[in-house]
Amino acid sequence: DPFDRAQIVRARCREVYSELEPRPPTNPAYDFESRLYLIHPHQVMYCPVGKVFSSNFKRVILYFQDMRPRSLRARLPHHILWYKNSTILSRIPDVALKERVLRDYLRVVFVRDPISRAVSAYKDKFYGRTLDRNLVYFRNVIGMAICRALARYAAAPSTPTWVTLRFQFNCSKEANVHFNLYSFLVFVFVVPERFKYRMDIHNPHWADSVALCRICQDPGYDFVGRFEQGSADVQVLFDRFKWRNITFPNIPDSLLTEAETEAFRSEVADLPKDFVRELEQITWKERYILGYTDVKGHV
């Protein structure tokens, strides 16, 4: 149950940050209040985590904003889904009202296993060759920024030799990143750790969800749904507020062709065990807090 899971997450946050670190993580690259979306009639506050059906949940929020069923069915442009929404906490000018929202609204977040989420982000943002404007931006702007930063990082005298030898981000002139195991490991390890405060590289699609949504900061979240539960956890929220006149949309946001999707699946279908173990080492803290592993610390 997502409400029970929220209590477990809070307990694990207290456990980890009392024993291992002095304070819970935040992500200073983002204005936290600009990431909190509100459903005022039902007093719900939602923090979107990239690659956890956040676009489809934004359709639900848009529906309550304008009460138009089209919001739930249409494949809306990216700027409509993410920037034309007026119900964002940072846009409330009244300080007292903002404090009341933070205090009284049901705090909702949906999470996903960090390894699965990183695979999905890498696939959708860097693997395909679509000319969609949003994905061209990812490849040509963020992808190139990653390539240049990694090149400087690899050339620095303080960089460990194993990084320069093992991890190569294979970038073409257009910053199309060609998938291979080691470039993917760079993506999930070097990029988040080395460049976490750079807006030109860091992105909500692959940022640590615990820091991105301040999951371990008081007062925490009341509802922690899981991507892996499919629509079941979403339905718990819908039942809580009796949203029986709408159905949660299931509109895919991947723009890869069918051939690209199949090619990617074949490449990641059987990752080497030592590679998966290394990913588990990298993401253990987020996975432990969110309940994807019961092993605390490096394995």
* Rg (CA only): 20 Å
Instruction: List how many beta strands DSSP finds.
Output: 4
Q: What multimeric state do the chains show?
A: single chain
Strand line-up of the largest beta sheet: 1-2-3-4
Low-confidence stretches: 172-178
Q: Tell me the strand percentage band.
A: 5-15%
Number of helices: 13
Structural class: mainly alpha
Give the N-to-C terminal Cα separation.
28 Å
Form type: globular
Q: Give the helices and strands as they follow along the chain.
A: HEEHHHHEHHHHHEHHH
**How much helicity do the residues have?**
40-55%
Average predicted confidence as pLDDT: 78
What report would you give on this structure?
It contains 13 helices and four strands. The chain has helices at 2-19, 54-66, 70-73, 78-83, 95-104, 114-127, 133-155, 161-166, 181-194, 209-212, 231-240, 258-268, 273-289; strands at 37-39, 44-47, 106-111, 223-226. The protein has a four-stranded mixed sheet.
Compile the SSE list and pairings.
Layout: H1 2-19, E1 37-39, E2 44-47, H2 54-66, H3 70-73, H4 78-83, H5 95-104, E3 106-111, H6 114-127, H7 133-155, H8 161-166, H9 181-194, H10 209-212, E4 223-226, H11 231-240, H12 258-268, H13 273-289
Parallel strand pairs: 2-3, 3-4
Antiparallel strand pairs: 1-2
Question: Outline of this structure?
Answer:
This protein is mainly alpha-helical and 299 residues long.
